[in-house]
Design a protein that fits this description.
- The complex is a heterodimer of chains A (545) and B (464).
- Chain A has 545 residues and is mainly alpha-helical.
- Chain A has 3 domains: 23-234, no CATH class; 248-364; 366-545.
- Chain A has 20 helices and 8 strands.
- In chain A, the strands form 4 sheets. Chain A has a two-stranded antiparallel ribbon with strand order 1-2.
- Chain A starts with a helix and ends with a helix.
- Chain B is an alpha+beta fold.
- Chain B has helices at residues 2-18, 21-45, 48-56, 59-78, 87-109, 434-463, and strands at residues 111-118, 122-138, 145-151, 165-168, 173-191, 200-207, 210-217, 224-228, 231-235, 246-252, 257-264, 269-277, 281-283, 290-297, 300-308, 317-324, 327-332, 335-340, 345-370, 377-385, 393-396, 401-403, 406-415, 421-430.
- The longest helix of chain B is centred in the C-terminal third of the chain and has 30 residues, at 434-463.
- The two termini of chain B are 46 Å apart.
- Classes of the chains: A mainly alpha (545), B alpha+beta (464).
- At the A-B interface, helix 17, helix 18 and helix 19 of A face helix 2, helix 3, helix 5, strand 20 and strand 23 of B.
Chain lengths: 545, 464
């Protein structure tokens, strides 16, 4: 059944045109798994340059056409000396720049000026001392660590450190690097690399050059495979990943969600039903892309895609659309689609446009996260509850907009919003309670502790208590209509803390595999704007009364 | 009649206010604030224990949880006599009570510790997070008698120079005057003028992929050795005899020089020998390793210092400052100190409590799977034997062993300097409250779904 599903997916996938370069699908062993060269190049350029593409800028700030990662990395391997003096390594941390005496107004630096920096040795020495003492790294150390990995990667690319062929020793799973290949294999690789790079710059007909490049790549693949055919993956497997990279399904998803939001605005502006119908069509396309992207990630990694921040953001957005559909069918109200499409757009843009904060690369799992049914169920349940709360936040935002426009919180329009909001919160509370408990079941099953006051689980509990207080307050009559709308927006901060804050701000506890850094200013801006908005609506409503 | 009346009064004057929704909202909010504070404390010190001791298991947290339980009991009593439509409501609220009760049982009667077993060895000692102070005494220096044993919880019972913990010994008191929760152990080796002290040397072993430096300090003039993966380095004070394996034997000669002999397992004997002084280096002949003698004292002594840190790290331990007989000293977690009274000797031990299982766990084998081409562990598993089970048992991540009421989970492992695993660490657990927690969980989830479903349905009937 699953097989048939994936076969269907593959046929669907091949309908989209791929770049068609065999070289880009050649396997590279890196970061604990085999990935197509294309993925390796994208991740490498992201680390080195902080971007998926590279634009060469000259002194006047004039820039070339942006070049793809696969192309850039190939030329680094082929002619490393050309890149020694190219200012393309991104360093952001101001403290690190001043510690290294680098100009603060520059973003990009030459590898040569970084490696020859007289203070680099001392900095990395201090970093090592800290790592040896197993102390927690502060943002400065993390920036130094990032610079270290950038320089190590550049050095590896320069010196043929790319692992491209299985080990001839059948017992070793460590692949051989370019430098360790036989002369015949080396020649074949560099031939493939050269013909590949000339497809971007060379003369002659493009189609012939691509065919030539593909043939050279296939010749190398055959020679590399000879080392140990069992460890060489079938072409199909890695081309799916290359397809995932080039299609960027999540980008299409947010574009179509955003289109739906615009159409919904037009719908309410012109009071035209057709805009609503077309808006739904746009959401359906977006949701199909969203789901397809998910399916591809599951196929590539052989695991459910909920193991890091990036993946949960994408999953929550997916949940929002599911709840939007269900509530739209049950309540038959248009504003639900507007609210749902709005928050789904925000979540998907955040996931897609902030690669330095939310790492979307496909990473192997920590041992404790592997092959565990409970883990999958508990994370998916908790994230789905976040989706319900997120949708409630969207609905409350739309409702407050009407309050600002002049509707009384006791009007039937606002009452209906409050009712939908309340029900959405109920769904969220049941899912969060169940998910938190399932987290306990997982913890008990995995390390014998049902509840250990770990910050991640504790904050999930705090969010649950916050929403429970809101729902009980409503029952007690303490919370009126406006209070429900304001409460569902403010209580979402608890979800933000449990979801983002524990991993990115507190940075303590057992869920360390999801830790990250950055983005706090954006999150703070979002929280601040929401508070201001609630306060503004409150004052307007108060003055009117 | 009076009973009925009394019941009514209790219901209206006691149960009603305790069961009120407003009270519930206040209590729920208070719990949220308290536990949020706990997570901030944990993040500040990077230590789960301090948050547990000072927040989650503090008297005020327990007080608020007690109010919470009172509120829950009151609402359940308040709804009496119960009707069918109360099923969801009662189930969800009783579920929370059952869950809390289960947690209490676990807290007071459960065991949650760790068991380290060396590969090829056995162990029955489970270490738990509680700490104790023990004092033993001896008159002749041979037979020891325990004279003091008490839990050492300095989070809830802080000590200071003004308010020390007094431990009465024969003639004078032992005073614990300070508690440093996070200290780095700084082991300084210094030249000693006492000719009774043994030798001390610091060396480095390295090749192009690996470098490691260590001290070897002879205690009480006895030989000392250190195992570094496939080889051992021995400081020979005259009583060492080579038998087998790769070994480097260093024998002090005078104030400047040591004599060295290199033995090889593969070549079955001595492959190199000579003399070296501080700064000298030579090739060891195994794995392209080079030996460098960094420092050498013919007579040396190690002094342990505790450097307080702001935060916890895997390298920090807690330490106690004590005063006895007018002299100050420090004692680190899981170590002992000798004190001398007028005619008697004391051994003071400060460490994690150990619980002895009444059976041994033997570790036959341990395997680590790595992600291809890296040293990142992808999985690890232990093969163990326990008495009465006549076959090998595999314990791995997510595949625990249940045996005589205890559950053994694969928690982590320890490696030697070469990255070879040497010890497997299990988390050991006995949980009498488990079934209550599961029962409570089921009741909560079932109850809240039932509760919300019924409200939705009722709202529909009303509207439609």
């Amino acid at each position: 059944m699953v097989r048939i599903f994936f076969l269907f997916l593959l046929s669907f996938g091949s309908a989209f045109a791929d770049s068609g370069f065999t070289f880009e699908t050649l396997p590279v062993q890196n970061g604990g798994r085999l990935k197509p060269y294309d993925t390796f190049a994208r991740e490498s350029l992201m680390l080195l340059h902080g971007s998926a593409k590279y634009k060469k800028e000259d002194a006047e700030g004039e820039s070339d056409k942006p070049r793809q990662a696969a192309n850039v990395i190939a030329t680094i391997i082929l002619v490393p000396q050309m890149w020694e003096d190219a200012p393309f390594i991104r360093v952001d941390h101001l403290g690190l720049k001043s510690a290294m005496d680098l100009p603060k107004d520059r973003k990009y630096f030459k590898p040569s000026e970084l490696t020859r920096n007289p203070r680099l040795g001392v900095l990395l020495g201090e970093l090592n001392t800290k790592r040896a003492a197993k102390e927690k790294l502060n943002p400065f150390d993390q920036a130094a660590q990032r610079l270290e990995s950038q320089l190590v990667l550049f050095h590896e690319l320069q010196n043929g450190g790319l692992r491209v062929a299985p080990n001839t020793d059948k017992n070793s799973t460590t692949w051989l690097s370019l430098a360790e290949l036989t002369d015949v294999q080396k020649e074949a690789y560099f031939n493939a690399l050269k013909t590949y790079t000339t497809t971007f710059t060379g003369n002659g007909e493009q189609a012939t050059r691509i065919a030539e490049s593909n043939e050279a790549a296939e010749i190398f693949a055959l020679k590399a495979q000879e080392n140990n055919p069992e460890q060489y993956p079938p072409v199909q497997q890695l081309s799916i990943e290359a397809h995932y990279n080039s299609l960027a399904p999540f980008q299409w998803a947010w574009i179509f969600y955003a289109t739906a939001v615009v159409l919904m605005f037009l719908s309410s502006l012109f009071q035209n039903r057709w805009f609503y119908v077309v808006s739904w069509a746009s959401v359906v396309v977006a949701f199909a892309m969203h789901t397809y992207g998910f399916a591809l990630r599951v196929y590539i990694t052989h695991r459910p895609p909920v193991s890091n921040m990036y993946e949960t953001v994408v999953w929550v957005a997916w949940g929002v659309v599911v709840f939007t559909t269900i509530f739209s069918i049950v309540k038959k109200k248009r504003y639900i689609l507007l609210a749902g499409a709005m928050v789904a757009t925000i979540a998907m843009i955040v996931a897609d446009r902030a690669p330095l904060i939310l790492d979307g690369s496909l990473q192997p799992l920590e041992p404790v996260l592997r092959s565990n049914l409970w883990l999958i169920i508990h994370v998916m349940t908790i994230s789905l509850s976040y989706a319900a709360f997120f949708l409630a936040l969207g609905i409350s935002n739309v409702a407050l907009f009407h309050v600002v426009r002049g509707y009384s919180p006791d009007s039937s329009l606002i009452k209906d919003y409050v009712d939908t909001c309340y029900k959405t919160l109920q769904v969220g509370v049941v899912l969060l309670a169940a998910g938190t408990i399932l987290g306990g079941v997982w913890a008990d099953y995995s390390w014998g502790r049902f509840w250990g006051w770990d910050p991640k689980e504790t904050w999930a509990l705090i969010a649950l208590l916050g929403y429970l207080a809101l729902l009980h307050g409503r029952l007690a009559g303490l919370v009126k209509n406006f209070g429900m709308l304001a409460g569902s927006i403010i209580a979402f901060n608890l979800v933000m803390m449990a979801w983002y804050g524990v991993n990115f701000v507190l940075g303590a506890g057992l869920h360390s595999y999801g830790f990250g850094a950055g983005g706090i200013e954006y999150v703070a801006a979002f929280v601040g704007l929401e508070f201001l908005y609630v306060f503004f609506a409150f004052v307007i409503n108060l003055l009117r009364a | 009649m009076t009973f009925l009346y009394l019941g009514e009064v209790i219901k209206s004057k006691v149960v009603k206010p305790l069961a009120s929704l407003k009270f519930a909202v206040v209590v729920i909010s208070a719990i949220a604030v308290i536990v949020a504070w706990g997570t901030i404390i944990e993040a500040k010190y990077l230590d789960a224990k301090i948050a547990q001791e000072t927040v989650y298991h503090s008297w005020f947290a327990y007080f608020v949880f007690a109010l919470f339980a009172t509120n829950l009991i009151a609402v359940i009593v308040d709804r009496y006599p119960w009707k069918n439509h109360h099923i969801g409501f009662i189930s969800a609220h009783i579920g929370i009570l059952v869950l809390l009760l289960g947690s209490l049982l676990t807290r007071y009667y459960g065991v949650d510790g760790s068991l380290s077993v060396p590969i090829g060895g056995t162990s029955s000692q489970v270490m738990v997070s509680e700490t104790d102070i023990l004092v033993y005494t001896s008159l002749n220096g041979e037979s020891f008698r325990k004279i003091y044993e008490a839990p050492a919880n300095f989070w809830s019972h802080p000590v200071s120079a003004e308010k020390p913990l007094k431990i009465p010994l024969a003639t004078k008191d032992l005073l614990i005057t300070d508690f440093v929760p996070y200290a780095l152990v700084d082991n300084k080796v210094m030249e000693s003028s006492d000719a009774n002290d043994g030798s001390a040397l610091r060396f480095q072993i390295s090749n192009d992929r690996f470098a490691q430096s260590n001290w070897l300090v002879s205690k009480g003039n006895r030989s000392e050795e250190i195992s570094m993966g496939p080889a051992r380095v021995i400081l020979n004070m005259g009583d060492y005899k080579y038998t087998s394996g790769n070994a480097l034997v260093l024998t002090p000669m005078d104030a400047e020089k040591v004599h060295y002999d290199v033995y090889s397992e593969r070549l079955k004997g001595k492959i190199n020998s000579g003399t070296a002084e501080a700064g000298a280096h030579f090739n060891l002949g195994w794995m392209n390793l080079e030996f460098r003698l960094l420092k050498y004292h013919q007579h040396g002594r190690s002094e342990i210092k505790f450097v307080p840190r702001e935060q916890s790290s895997p390298e920090t331990i807690s330490a106690l400052k004590f005063i006895y007989n007018g002299k100050e000293g420090w004692i680190g977690l899981n170590s002992t100190v000798r004190l001398f009274g007028d005619s008697e000797m004391y051994v003071v031990a400060y460490g994690n409590r150990r619980i002895s299982l009444d059976f041994d766990v033997a570790l036959k084998n341990f395997e680590v799977g790595r992600y291809q081409g890296t040293m990142r562990a992808s999985s690890y598993q232990s093969v163990v034997r326990v008495p009465g089970v006549d076959k090998d048992i595999t314990i791995s991540m997510n595949q625990p062993l249940e045996y005589r009421g205890f559950t053994f989970y694969q928690a982590s492992f320890q490696e030697d300097e070469m990255g070879k695993p040497v010890t497997s660490v299990f988390s050991v657990n006995y949980d009498p409250g488990r079934w209550l927690k599961y029962l409570g969980s089921i009741l909560i989830v079932f109850g809240s779904i039932h509760l919300f479903y019924r409200r939705w349905k009722r709202a529909r009937v009303k509207n439609g």
